[in-house]
# Entry
Amino acid sequence: MEHRNESFVSGFTLQGIFNQAGHEDLIFSILLFMYLLILLGNLLIVLLIRCDAHLLHTPMYFFLSYLSLADVGFASSTVPVALHNLLSRDKIISYGGCLSQTYFFLAFGNSDSFLLAAMAYDRYMAICRPLHYAALMNTRCCLLMVSGCWLLAFLHSLIYPLMLSRLSFCASHEIRHFFCDVNPLIGLSCSDTTPIKMVVMTEGMLNILGPCILIVVSYGRIFLTVMKTPSSSRKLKAFSTCGSHLAVVTLFYGTLIWVYLLPTSENKALASVMYTVVTPMLNPFIYSLRNNEMKGALRRLLGQMRVFLNNEMSFT
# Structure
């Protein structure tokens, strides 16, 4: 019991992203630049969709705005601490701070996963059931789906911090990671970790594979429906509307499976950076660069800002 109390005082030492000795300034600059891109890109998408009535009432963009918010929270749960540790000598995170980081990392990560599944279902309804799409995917249904994704993610993610809080940490307090994740914390415990390992292996696997399977099934049905379409132009249009989402899904779940379902794989830190930093950074570019509606919304927003500034200058 005495050892467990010590963990509340000293907390944990985070090892870092890579073998960063002598390269802290370079890694800090790169990571800060990527984090600013995450904030700017994703918050711009939220602003564009919220300021455009047409996009806001289109289910695909409605879900995208919440995915962008989840990406901001997901990156913000890990990157600021990593940036602080790159400039700090002790690299210590408190016990409570570590459990809080674990919770918000899981909550926003699960929100990302569930929202990607909801977006895949939306694409399935739009392509496979076009006549019923407007009636079924109405505003009320979209609100319920988004609320369900966020509520389920934030309630479900309480399981791991609560179970971790019951463990004793009496050996090394150095976490071989750049943030407080479940598996590295389990490795430091000198308690019986069988219950939480069972939860990670069963519930955790279902939590990753469940939305992933729903996405695969949705796109399997989409592929079969599109291949039955005689028009090649319609096939191209259908695949182009799904391409951005498929790219994000592949990047997100590929690295997620690499880290959590392949325990013997190497370069876990690199894979973790891919889904905690790189994916949220690339999402705005993937969804916007080839999207004429998003480009149009940006032009309209800039036009409104220009009119507003001209009016302000005329009054002065």
Notes: The chain has a mean pLDDT of 85.
